[in-house]
Amino acid sequence: MCKGKIGLIPFHYFINSEIQPARMASVRRFKFDTSDLHEKNQKSLIISIPEVLDPSYGMYVWPSAVVLAQYVSIHREEIKSKRILEVGAGTSLPGVVAAKLGASVTLTDDIHQPVCLENCKKSCQENQLEDVSIMGLSWGRFTPQMLELPPQDIILASDCFYDSKDFEDIVATFKFFIQRNNKCQCWVTYQQRSTERSIEYLLQKWKLKCCHVPLVLFGADSPCIAGSELPGNHTIEMMIITDQS
Ligand SMILES: C[S@@+](CC[C@H](N)C(=O)[O-])C[C@H]1O[C@@H](n2cnc3c(N)ncnc32)[C@H](O)[C@@H]1O
């Protein structure tokens, strides 16, 4: 059982709007190696993600997203044909990688942030993904639309644990999906911003457990992943949350 330490101080990694004009748009490219060890020819998966320079959190790729996308890409055989739902998806890099590798993907973001849901859509369009479902899902709110979803195998969550007021809602959302499929795994990456906070008591309360996944195990212990300059010098952690039983 890992400690489940989570940092919380939100930060903007585009800092000075006097230097950077607001709402500057660009497309960021990521290249994931998808070749097997024994394959002679290297194959790459190229993903393009539209970003907008904007103070809203879901408008650009966060350092945690590239780490989670790398984990998804390394587990390409495991995720093929699995049902995967991403929460707080924003620009949706991990979910888009999963969809490109053959998973049946649903991307979600806060129902009150239509601009973020629009981003999920743009990321799918940019990568020629037509079969990905997109829906509003606000952590801790259980809607009829959520009840209509089929049981999910994997929940992806990249940089969702940044504001402690949301922690229990996120954990409760994980529990919702785990209750519908007790084999469901929640693959979580987060940015270490403070060692003062922990979600361990919430996992105990909701009868869940977590195990820490060292980044070195999936080649994500470098400041540059997938041909990008992310995660940079940020400390990213990964854990897998599952049912306690
Ligand atoms: C720090 S961003 C991370 C975005 C993306 N997962 C990434 O790593 O690049 C947090 C995301 O959570 C979403 N979010 C914030 N509050 C939420 C809530 N109450 N319910 C669902 N999503 C929420 C934001 O809209 C945003 O897309």
Automatic annotation (TrEMBL):
One of its GO terms (biological process) is methylation. The keyword Methyltransferase applies. Gene3D superfamilies: Vaccinia Virus protein VP39. GO terms for molecular function: methyltransferase activity. Signal peptide: none annotated. Keywords: Methyltransferase, S-adenosyl-L-methionine, Transferase. Pfam families: Methyltransf_16. One of its GO terms (cellular component) is nucleus. InterPro entries: Methyltransf_16, SAM-dependent_MTases_sf. It comes from the Eukaryota. SUPFAM superfamilies: S-adenosyl-L-methionine-dependent methyltransferases (SSF53335). Belongs to the methyltransferase superfamily. METTL23 family. This is Methyltransferase-like protein 23. The lineage of its organism: Eukaryota, Metazoa, Echinodermata, Eleutherozoa, Echinozoa.
